[in-house]
Write a structure and sequence with these properties.
The structure is a homodimer. Chain A has two domains: 3-140, Jelly Rolls, CATH 2.60.120; 148-213, Arc Repressor Mutant, subunit A (Orthogonal Bundle). The termini of chain A are far apart. Chain A is built from six helices and eleven strands. Helices cover 36% and strands 26% of the residues of chain A. Chain A has helices spanning 14-23, 107-111, 120-146, 151-166, 177-183, 188-200, and strands at 27-31, 36-39, 46-52, 55-60, 66-72, 77-79, 92-96, 100-106, 170-172, 204-207, 210-213. Chain A is of the alpha+beta class. The longest helix of chain A has 27 residues, at 120-146. Chain A has a four-stranded antiparallel sheet. In chain A, strands 2-7-4-5 form a four-stranded antiparallel sheet. At the A-B interface, helix 3 and helix 4 of A face helix 3 and helix 4 of B. Chain B binds a DNA duplex through helix 6.
Chain lengths: 214, 214
Amino acid sequence: MHINKTMLFKGIDENDCKRMLKCFKAEEKNYKSGDTICNYSEKTDFIGIVTSGSVNVIRGDENGNISILEHIEENGLFGKYFIYPASVGEGIYVVCDCACTVIFIESFHITKRCSKACVCHSTVVSNMFDIVTEKSKELSSHLIVLSCRSTREKLLCCFRLLSAQSQSTSFELPFSATALAEYICVDRSAMTRELKKMKEECIITMNKRKVTLL
Amino acid sequence: MHINKTMLFKGIDENDCKRMLKCFKAEEKNYKSGDTICNYSEKTDFIGIVTSGSVNVIRGDENGNISILEHIEENGLFGKYFIYPASVGEGIYVVCDCACTVIFIESFHITKRCSKACVCHSTVVSNMFDIVTEKSKELSSHLIVLSCRSTREKLLCCFRLLSAQSQSTSFELPFSATALAEYICVDRSAMTRELKKMKEECIITMNKRKVTLL
DNA sequence: AATGTGTTGTTGCTTTTGCAACAAATATAA
DNA sequence: TTATATTTGTTGCAAAAGCAACAACACATT
């Protein structure tokens, strides 16, 4: 594992990274698929760096519906306080999408400079800016998907964004069908029904997770 | 108008602000209620600082439905490139909520340091970080609202967030009824019907824009 | 006060979506 | 491999939400 492949330590020498991780009192943990990594109702303010695998930030409601708020791939980062307002957190969890490794760092280590004032800390702060900007873009894309009024429009909007990302009319879904329904916040069976109609109307083709917009 | 009341120039001396605005080739424009300020499908990369009034970032779909993506109050900031991914923009507009004044600055002036290398530019960059963080929090709150499956849950979720913000069970809606429906992305008449039921079930009381959670 | 413009409230009807339940297919673990 | 769990596809039925149309109301302008 190369820590400088992660978004937070990008552009920093591997040895400097190791030194900083020690200084930041970073802790590494391993999880298996389906494990709950943390609960955003906890008050502790830390960030999690996903060094292998991928995780989802989910919200569960009182009726048992699950919604995926964020999907975080390898080398991505999650954390309550730098993205959600203090008042939310109830019902929000980070769960493993597959077996994964996460490095935890308490947030104040990132934001407040330590006495050693190492130069590479500036790079971390600058990377943090890029991460927050990137997160905004992902949140806004997701918001645009959810602002669509019908299941079909949500699906098409989501597919168009993925298509633009891959610069092709064909692309691989980063989700299972169940997870896709949770991401667009609709009932799974209703989504399947709509996808079937869309295939029949020749708007899309689907093969496992590979989607093509026609 | 005090430019250092805005989020971007916070903490900077008024004279320095004026000097920077000149250096940034800032342009001020006035609008009246309902005016379209800009269209995010345009390629120009600028930010807009709302120095008076308030604006909404909206998205219109092919059926004529309007969704409010962001609501920006006085001293807030809008801009396509620091928040939306390059592929979106089609159908997204910034419109005036009421008469307002906006200062436009091309983004590269903010991100790229000019040769004069003034100290206060660092404060602007640091403020920009805070603004993006703040935006993330607003986007994530909105996302949580839209992740709710029913109109009632969307309303309650939205009301609970506003209640937490005002630290009271009573609060003033920042929206008209029509705009609230556009913010939670549901049909206005269906929303009114649901609000009526909620009043009858003694879950809320409403008086004009003042809402109380019971 | 009269007029026009826009917002809010209301309702019947239609369509979409959610829910529940189960079968089929696939993946995972023993 | 076999057993077990999970995911996917399907459907009928009920509930929720959207649509359209209009009346009531509020507000600003003349």
